[in-house]
Design goal:
This protein is α/β, with parallel strands linked by helices. The chain has two domains: about 1-195, 2-enoyl-CoA Hydratase, Chain A, domain 1, CATH 3.90.226.10; about 200-240. The protein has helices spanning about 25-40, 65, 70-80, 85-90, 105-115, 140-150, 150-160, 165-170, 185-195, 200-210, 215-240, and strands at about 1-5, 10-15, 45-50, 55-60, 95-100, 100-105, 115-120, 125, 165, 175-180. Helix 1 links the parallel strand 2 and strand 3. The chain contains eleven helices and ten strands. It is globular.
Length: about 240
């Protein structure tokens, strides 16, 4: 994994090229530790998650590791230990997945945990777990229906079909398709545009948008008004201090 912080934008590049950036336990633990640190770092204003190279964003679970003999209790404890995808989803900073290649299984689930997804024109995405006798384990069956609706989520999860970049946009999974060579710059431009806005407002806005997917409209509207009143009060206090 490689990280770079510039102008408040943290770029995180998955870097297991020899394994198509597949998620093994080392990667899950490293990402969990990173997201804990990022959540507490006010110097990070936006996050970009991508993969090195131009072929894979992340191929999902490391099947070689998953196929190794392991006691069921040890496997359960190991896989529950990190929960890095949930930590990514809970970051207070806006997150952008720059899908630079194949994003399959847990790779797509990481992208789904981000707020915005940009996708390279040659990329493909999918949740193929059922074709291997498994089910998604990183929130795929929960986040995908909220993005694309129940019927389309059923189609993708139950068939394991992959989507092209254009289909990912059509389904509402990705914001837009970008030529592969332009994807890094497009993600940085978007992230900098977000990071340049006042931080408290951005954090409140992200929290409210996330909450809109979990609570009734009236509950979310009350929280929205509370946040607006808080920000107005803070602005009033700042003006008094400066006068």
């Amino acid at each position: 994994m490689r990280t770079e912080l510039e102008s408040g934008v943290l770029t995180v590049r998955l870097d297991r090229a020899e394994a198509a950036h597949a998620r093994n336990q080392v990667m899950r633990d490293e990402l969990a530790s990173l997201w804990r640190a990022v959540a507490a770092d006010r110097g990070v204003r936006a996050v970009i998650l991508t993969g090195t190279g131009d072929r894979f964003f992340c191929a999902g679970m490391d099947l070689k590791e998953a196929g190794s003999p392991e006691d069921p209790v040890s496997r359960r404890d190991r896989m529950r230990r990190s929960r890095d995808i949930e930590q990514l989803a809970e970051l207070p900073q806006p997150t952008i997945a720059a899908i630079n290649g194949f994003a399959l299984g847990g790779g797509l689930e990481m992208a789904l945990a981000c707020d915005i997804r940009l996708v390279a024109d040659h990329a493909q995405i999918g949740l193929p777990e059922v074709t291997r006798g498994l089910v998604p384990g990183g929130g795929g069956t929960q986040r995908l229906p909220r993005l694309v609706g129940y019927a389309r989520a059923c189609e993708l999860v139950l068939s394991g079909r992959r989507l092209t970049a254009a289909e990912a946009v059509e389904y509402g999974i990705a914001l837009r398709v970008t030529p592969a060579a332009d994807l890094p710059a497009a993600a940085v431009e978007l992230a900098r545009g977000i990071a340049g806005n006042p931080e408290p407002a951005v954090r409140y806005a992200k929290a409210l948008l996330r909450r809109s997917q979990q609570v009734p409209v009236d509950v979310g509207a009350d929280a929205e008004l509370d946040a607006l009143l808080t920000l107005l009060g803070e602005a009033d206090a700042a003006r008094r201090r400066s006068s």
